[in-house]
Amino acid sequence: MDKTWNNKAWFMVLPVLLLVAFSAVIPLMTVVNYSVQDTFGNNQFFWAGTEWYEEILHSDRFHAALGRNLVFSFIILAIEVPLGIVIALNMPRRGWGVPVCLVLMALPLLIPWNVVGTIWQVFGRNDIGLLGHTLESLGIKYNYVQNPLHAWFTVIIMDVWHWTSLVVLLCYAGLVSIPDAFYQAAKIDGASRWAVFRYIQLPKMNRVLLIAVLLRFMDSFMIYTEPFVVTGGGPGNSTTFLSIDLVKIAIGQFDLGPAAAMSIIYFLIILLLSWIFYTVMTNYDAER
Amino acid sequence: MDLSWMAWTVPTALFFMTIFLLLIGMAVWEYFSPGGNPRIGILRFETTRGDRLFVSLLGAAYIHLAWLGLVGPNLWWALAISVVYAVGVFRFV
């Protein structure tokens, strides 16, 4: 094959490479170094080999947090992706409604994560919060501080409220890029609403959905701030996800070695799952 | 430049040097044989040389973790399996 690349272009990539090196690669290398050592105060390190990895791999606490995180990511993907598609399909394409809907959809995304957590912490309280008080009035004993099921419900609803907009905006961007000619052709063929969605809109949204699923998966798998503010990982450990557990080990217990080993395993899980998502969805797209 | 905060050890330095040398090797390979040699292997989707290196390294990481979790801390056999796996990936994927 002939050489088609302009190698001078690599110099243009150099600043990004340096940025990534300092923000990601060097910290990651440091974490690998920490993961094979025991750390004491005053920067004293002692070789521990694979001890921390074995400890984490055999830890029931890690398995439980990983399980909770996978269930959480599955639930929010199962809710946010279909809901985002439905909302995007029903948003107006012309007129004054477009900017109104876009601004309303963008609002939750603009709120800082810890503020979202605080909003839902207050919202869910049954003495002063609208959600908690309304559920109490309906006769439902709602208490996210003491009941694990209620804590999960609150964290999931909060995430859906916060992030469905991202899926909506991405899907909407895919939908508005479809030329009118496609819809006219479908109308001439007498295509049903479902057929239009299945054979015109969904294929056109495929790429943006790939991005949406990847972003939402990675973000939900790394979720920390919102559940930490609302439930603090409780009641018990019922909403302690991997990142919350990691921070407890690293900063709470100051066990940097096990925390670093856990970070590496956590990173490898995200890398594998993201690669599987990306490969499956891009190949599905290519086959079409 | 003081890099003591990174807590370097000889084994981790060797590990990263190996990865770095692999990347340089891939760049040299690409220079002499441009295009990444895309092909469809046993996974039934197109992979380039870079994809195959990624799959090999990721697989090697999981082989080592599985060995640690299921067998024990002696990782030489895990390394041997990883090399065989990587050869297999570059040959068949």
UniProtKB/TrEMBL annotation, chain A:
Q: Per the database record, which ranges form the ABC transmembrane type-1 domain?
A: 66-277
Q: Which PROSITE patterns match?
A: ABC_TM1
In which compartments does the protein localize? Cell membrane
The residues that cross the membrane are 12-36, 70-89, 96-116, 151-175, 208-225, 264-284
Q: Which Gene Ontology biological process is one annotated for this entry?
A: transmembrane transport
* Subcellular location, principal: membrane
Keyword list (alphabetical) reads:
Membrane, Transmembrane, Transmembrane helix, Transport
Tell me which GO cellular component terms the UniProt record holds: plasma membrane
Please name the Pfam families in this protein's record.
Answer: BPD_transp_1
Top-level taxon: Bacteria
Instruction: Provide the leader sequence positions.
Output: none
Record CDD domains: TM_PBP2 (cd06261)
Topology within the bilayer: Multi-pass membrane protein
* Entry similarity comment: Belongs to the binding-protein-dependent transport system permease family.
Q: What name does the UniProt record give this protein?
A: Sugar ABC transporter permease
Organism, by scientific name, is Phyllobacterium pellucidum
TrEMBL record, chain B:
Entry keywords, A to Z? Membrane, Transmembrane, Transmembrane helix
Question: Which residues span the membrane?
Answer: 12-32, 53-70, 76-92
Among InterPro entries, the record links this protein to: DUF2160_TM (IPR018678)
What is the protein named?
DUF2160 domain-containing protein
* Biological source species: Phyllobacterium pellucidum
Provide the organism lineage as a comma list.
Bacteria, Pseudomonadati, Pseudomonadota, Alphaproteobacteria, Hyphomicrobiales
